Amino acid sequence: MTQKSNNSSMLVGFAGLLGFILLVALIGLIFISGEDDIIQGQAEATEYRVSSKVPGRILEFRVEEGQSVQVGDTLAILEAPEVRAKMEQALAAQAAAQAQNAKAIKGARGEQIQAAYEMWQKAKAGLSLMDKSYQRLKKLHDEGIIPTQKLDEITAQRTAAMATERAAHAQYSMAKNGAELEDKRAAEALLDRARGAVAEVEAYMSETYLIAQMPGEVSDIFPKVGELVGTGAPIMNVAQLEEMWVSFNVREDRLQELSMGAEFDALVPALGNRSVRLKVYSLKSLGTYAVWKATKTSRQFDLKTFEVKARPVEPIEGLRPGMSVVIVRS
Fold it and tell me: Parallel, antiparallel, or unpaired: how do β-strands 234-251 and 228-229 relate?
């Protein structure tokens, strides 16, 4: 009786162990099969990065994280003393070029013009006197009263007086007409270059005011007030919530219903498992780094992972970047 009782106990224990193993296997199979029937993705939104062309110190933030902005809103203000110093230099160079250009256009001072005119009148008077003397001596020479040498001397003096008068007249004309055309063009070109330098610094000055280029919501602000930021350093991100999509990483043997242009239903747990309609617009392989390796060498192969992007067919109120979106297959 004792031997039979022991055998019965062993059979009961073995049956219980076998049942427990079968129950664990069944639960595991249920969980594994359930996991295979769910594809999880994440909501994403287009973001653009706000940065500055000039280095500076954060002087003030005009927005906060989570705040909505419109095109043209001021997001932040930078303090850049070096740019202000460059502006002062550019303005000084522009003022100097303007003065030089005005001088070239105006010509000589009034006193210089008057002095040149008086020198011309003096030369004219001298030429008139020499011309009269030449006429008298030429008449005496023709009558044989004076020798030819005297006529030659007065002729030379008359010629010199004529040259002096022409030179004085040229000096007066130059003073009256101002600088040469080439000098005026050179002065004008210098002024244009100075104006271009001012415009360039003004453009840099405008970069100290960071302006929203597109509407959206401020998602991240990186530096703090008072911190230094370099050229091109990211200062904040602005998310465009009107341009949202959902990204899934899907093994290629599960792509049957996720081809290009396909529409499908998914659930958003954060919105009370609300059902949403999505449409695939992008499908690409993630490369060899995302390959599912085969566990057996016989009759199996490596499976690649594809990134599937889908847009909502209609706007989804309350959907935010980072929310999970799941596809449940029966």
Answer: unpaired
Q: Are 47 and 218 in contact (CB under 8 A)?
A: no
Q: How far apart are CA 247 and CA 308, in angstroms?
A: 6
HEC profile of the chain: CHHHHHHHHHHHHHHHHHHHHHHHHHHHHHHHHHHHCEEEEEEEEEEEEEECCCCEEEEEECCCCCCEECCCCEEEEEECHHHHHHHHHHHHHHHHHHHHHHHHHHCCCHHHHHHHHHHHHHHHHHHHHHHHHHHHHHHHHHCCCCCHHHHHHHHHHHHHHHHHHHHHHHHHHHHHHCCCHHHHHHHHHHHHHHHHHHHHHHHHHHCCEEECCCCEEEEEECCCCCCEECCCCEEEEEEEEEEEEEEEEEEHHHCCCCCCCCEEEEEEHHHCCEEEEEEEEEEEECCHHHCECCCCCCCCCCECEEEEEEEECCCCCCCCCCCEEEEECC
Phi then psi dihedrals of residue 225, to 5 deg: -60, 130
274 pairs with which residues across the strands? 268
| Other Cβ atoms within 10 Å of 171 Cβ, number | 19
Per-residue tens of pLDDT for the chain, all 330 residues: 555 555 566 666 666 667 767 776 776 665 555 444 788 999 999 899 999 888 889 999 999 998 999 999 999 999 888 877 788 888 888 888 788 777 666 655 666 767 777 787 888 887 787 888 888 877 877 877 788 887 788 788 888 888 888 888 887 776 666 555 666 677 778 888 888 888 888 878 888 899 999 999 999 999 999 898 888 889 999 999 888 999 999 888 888 888 899 999 999 999 999 999 999 999 998 876 555 555 555 556 677 889 999 999 998 988 999 999 999 876
CA distance 221 to 56: 16
